[in-house]
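User: I'm new to structure prediction. If I give you an amino acid sequence, what do you actually give back? Let's try with this one:
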Amino acid sequence: MFRFTTSVFRRQARTMGWFSACVAILFLSAAAPFAKDYRIGAQDVVQIGVWEHPELTSKYAVAGDGTVTFPLVGPIKAAGLTAAELQAEVTKKLMDGFIKTPQVTVSVAEYLSQRVFVIGEVHTPGVVPLTGNLTLVEALTRAGSLTENAGGELQIVRAAPGSLSVGPTLPGSTGASVVLRASVQLLLRGQFATNAELTDGDTIVVPRAQSVSVLGQVKNPGAVPYEYDMTVLRAVSLVGGANDVGALGRARVIRIVDGKKTEIKAKETDTLQPGDVVMIPMKLW
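Assistant: Good question. You get back a string of structure tokens that encode the predicted 3D arrangement of the chain. For your 285 residues, that looks like this:
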């Protein structure tokens, strides 16, 4: 499982600005080539232009049966075609006894047939149109990037095959599966191996940040944001380290296991879990 990490929430806030800028650049550079591969679907709106024929140039909604009703030629099958393929089809229809050499342009004006959902700790949660090969990073960009309270376990949840996705699919829903868990920390480092492409109906879930507490003989006892694969040493370092009388080598971790409080002897390299309490006792001398 991946976790969004910064050493403190103030640093997290600064990082979010950098993250937004980086993913915006990625989106601007990548989205344009992908749009040409987008397959038109029902409810989409296409812009069709015919040179020197303003009476034909307009926006046309794709009906539920996947057709566009175009003047002169009537219904044209649009669903499943790219803009370029629809352009060729409209040109062919117009040449069949209507316009000798039509110059046609087609673009998608509104992407409404396919979408993904982004919920949780993002600035503008909701529906994101699936325009071409939309990726995780691009979807987060369109949702306004992460908030300061974001947790870091980004889950992509996919509905069961054949199910009608009318809203977000939550983890644990019947037939739903978590197809990816992605670390924002790795994305921030430019490691886009987990920047997966999304499919129609996918839901990106960004939970609220979790924490661990570090108490006892440390310089600044208190809670710190939980990080993926956080060790005892890392947690203690985030509160300024052990004080002069603190015995890091005798650390204890208090953890809730099956509803019961359990105390575990811990080494510096042991991995923590969200909600853990790290206790640093005094040296024995």
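You can read the tokens as a compact description of the fold. Here is one thing that stands out. The domain at 113-206 is CATH 3.10.560.10 (Outer membrane lipoprotein wza fold like).
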